[in-house]
């Protein structure tokens, strides 16, 4: 049951990202065809949906890879350890 819920959440974020792309596309095409169409609202909403979706899915993948020990962040070097 938990797996089904997690898949539903992931699919929901994919669909939100797809809807964001649709909003951006419709805003741009509507502006080209008819300049009186609203542009800023749908464009901003679409970009926000895309950013939230990509951020969530990227964070999910990063968390999974970090949990499995595959994601490694570069370590900062201390000053004075001889490295340039």
Jot down its keywords.
71% helix, 84 residues, mainly alpha, 2 helices
User: From N to C, what is the helix and strand string?
Assistant: HH
What fraction of residues sit in β-strands?
Answer: under 5%
- The chain-level structural class is mainly alpha
Output the radius of gyration. Answer: 20 Å
Structural overview:
The chain has 84 residues and is mainly alpha-helical. It contains two helices and no strands. The chain has helices at residues 2-33, 40-67. The longest helix has 32 residues, at 2-33. The protein is flat and about 60 Å long. The mean pLDDT is 89.
Describe, in short, the structure shown.
By secondary structure, the protein is mostly helical. It has helices spanning 2-33, 40-67. The protein is flat, with a radius of gyration of 20 Å.
List the helices and strands and how they pair.
Layout: H1 2-33, H2 40-67
Helix pairs in contact: 1-2
């Amino acid at each position: 049951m938990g797996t089904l819920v997690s898949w539903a959440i992931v699919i929901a974020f994919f669909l939100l990202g797809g809807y964001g792309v649709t909003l951006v596309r419709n805003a741009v095409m509507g502006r080209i065809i008819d300049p009186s169409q609203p542009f800023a609202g749908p464009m901003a909403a679409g970009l926000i949906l895309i950013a939230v979706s990509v951020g969530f899915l990227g964070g999910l993948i990063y968390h999974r890879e970090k949990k499995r020990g595959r994601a490694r962040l570069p370590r900062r070097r201390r000053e004075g350890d001889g490295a340039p």
